[in-house]
Amino acid sequence: MIALVRLAGRAASRSRVGIAAAAAPPPVGLSVQRRRAFQGVRMETGGSKGGRGALVVLEGLDRSGKTSQCARLLSFLKGKGYNAEGWRFPDRATSVGQMISSYLANDSQLDDRTIHLLFSANRWEKRALMESKLLSGTTLIVDRYSYSGVAFSAAKGLDIEWCKAPENGLIAPDLVIYLDVQPEKAAERGGYGGERYEKIEFQKKVAEHYHSLRDSTWKVTQFLQESPR
Predict the structure, then answer these.
(1) 165-222: per-residue pLDDT in tens?
(2) Bridge partners for 30 per DSSP
(3) Do you find a cis peptide bond into 90, omega within 30 degrees of 0?
(4) How far apart are CA 58 and CA 88, in angstroms?
(5) CB proximity list for 115: less than 8 A, separation 6 or greater
(6) CA 118 – CA 169 distance, rounded (Å)
(7) Who has greater pLDDT, 120 or 15?
(8) Are 42 and 33 in contact (CB under 8 A)?
(9) Which stretch of 84-93, 131-140, 193-202 has the lowest confidence by average pLDDT?
């Protein structure tokens, strides 16, 4: 836990003094940087006194402990005086998110490509608010992001480059923390199997694709809490 909070704190601190641009001509306050997972938009220093907030993403298999760690990181950062919020994808409060929620609960059936695009749309519908929050100095701790969308859909057999394409232009994280938990271990946690993707063999495939998406922004840690997510 200590290692995770230090990483998040460093990312938030770096964002206060700005991050160099990677390409031009970008929109004001943004720069484009090619990533292995997708062509993300790297944000520069915002206009607030303390600089912009950091985008910290936690990724991992289902029931790997992401939600618990997001809550702990958020509590830590707030305790250190950072303006921080916790986000989660899919955001099931939106109309698109409600369609995704129904699908994950096995209450509806959708083509694999259709659900992939819905997951991506769910991130896109929050993009403007995300940019506004970051530029105003709010650090965001996000439970799942584009990497989940790519890894899970590629695990179904969809072409990985096709899976990456809808993510192009979303804001690139400053830090990705990957909770590296064996699928068998995650399956021992309470409530496992309640949603569509919570099957050990499928989660093994997801883990393989996560591995292929790792880049220099990723920090991998083996950590598992007793709480369900």
Answers:
(1) 999 999 999 999 999 999 998 888 767 777 789 899 999 999 999 999 998 889 999 7
(2) 43
(3) yes
(4) 10
(5) 100, 103, 153
(6) 16
(7) 120
(8) yes
(9) 193-202
Domains and CATH numbers, the chain: 2-19+26-221 (3.40.50.300)
Q: For tokens 């298999």, what's the residue?
A: 61
Please indicate whether residue 5 or residue 185 has the higher confidence score (pLDDT).
185
The Cα 228–Cα 86 span in angstroms is 17
Is residue 183 reached through a cis peptide bond, with omega within 30 degrees of 0 on the bond before it? no
Residue 30 pLDDT greater than 60, yes or no: no
* pLDDT above 90: residue 91: yes
Q: From CA 170, how far away is CA 166, in angstroms rounded?
A: 9
Residue 41 to residue 30: CA distance in whole angstroms: 6
Paired tokens of 120: 């991506």
Average pLDDT over residues 225-229: 46
Nearest-angstrom CA–CA distance, 128 and 48: 17
Q: Measure the CA–CA gap between 194 and 198, rounded to whole angstroms.
A: 7
- Residue 75, token pair as written in the block: 């509590």
Nearest-angstrom CA–CA distance, 12 and 132 = 16
Residue matched to tokens 């569509």? 196
- What is the distance, to the nearest Å, from the Cα of residue 50 to the centroid of all Cα atoms in its chain? 24
